[in-house]
Amino acid sequence: MTATLDRRRHPVRADLAATRYRGEVEAARFVDPQPFRVTAATTPLRRDPRPDCGIDTEALAGEIVDVYETTMEGWAWGQLRTDGYVGWLSSDDIAPLDAAAPVATHLVRALRTFRYPGPDLKLPPLGLLSLGAQVAAGAITETRGLAYARLPDGSFVVARHLVPVGHVEPDWVAVAESLVGTPYLWGGRSSLGLDCSALVQLAAVFGGHALPRDSDMQEAEAGTSLGFREGDPLPQDLRRGDLLFWRGHVGVLSAPDLLTHANGFTMTVSQEPLAAALARIGAKEYGALTAIRRL
Question: Looking only at Cα atoms, what is the longest distance across the chain?
């Protein structure tokens, strides 16, 4: 290749690249994408098409993936439209998106919501959807005073668990706080398990902030920098919602002295006094604080 690109963000390989990179990179062939929709509740994206390969991130139900290659072994290589992440995922967890397919109208706002075969909570659920999953909500049916939205596959979810696409909450940090106790999962991006940057990304979208996926991307691009540099004293005007970065880690302030973050120390989303977190992380994990940004 004639350019060095981030494999997490650019669908470019030596043997195959997206057509839009023609003339910018060298590749054996150039391919136009085919759009697919994620049909599983979640599906992992991996660096390599192997089940024993670590998870880079996850795609959530309803998200669109632009697919550039599928293999006989059941893998698809593509790019998530949600945040531009590139990777391999299971072909079993996606379906072609045709022009007549309904577009997503709502996001799941509850931590998790069950899908039912009919508009009745007493029916055995078909599965669940995570916070942040995208759905095309159809007709509303009420059963015993509870409203259900019909999804295109014929299943139903509780309507009040959804918010319209584009919905903005005044306090997105409360979404992050609602995930306290969720297990830590490297590469996870759902309310069943997630990592530090996914916690920030998943919560911030409900504040109208479309953030990149990984902590290094967020440190470079999220919001605006407060001008903090490694070794500086903490600013006196820290406030709720500020993002704190270490090399390989990010957390969000619930208060000027309280950090909320998904972490490998507790193996959960947890809250801890900022001073204690700075001391512990500095001594045993990621070193000194490197940046502070404000959305």
Answer: 63
For 18, phi and psi rounded to 5 degrees? -65, 145
Count of the separate structural domains present in the chain: 3
Q: Which domain holds residue 285?
A: 173-294
Q: Residue 44: its pLDDT value, please? A: 98
Q: Which ranges of the chain have pLDDT less than 70?
A: 1-3
CA pair distance 265, 262, nearest whole angstrom: 9
Q: Report pLDDT digits (tens) over 190-221.
A: 999 999 999 999 999 999 999 999 999 999 99
Per residue in 101-116, is it b (16+ CB within 10 Å) or e — as a string? Answer: eeebebbbbbbebbbb
Nearest-5° Cα angle at 170, 107 to 262: 70
Closest CA relative to residue 76, chosen from 39, 46, 56: 46
**What's the confidence (pLDDT) of residue 2?**
47
Give the span between the Cα atoms of 295 and 293, in whole angstroms: 7
Q: Model confidence over 3-39: pLDDT tens digits?
A: 579 999 999 999 999 999 999 999 999 999 999 999 9
Asked if 184 and 285 sit in the same domain, the reply is yes
| pTM summary value | 0.96
Indicate which CATH number applies to the domain containing 23: 2.30.30.40
* 55 contacts 42 by C-beta, under 8 angstroms: no
Q: What is the CATH number of the domain that holds 279?
A: 3.90.1720.10
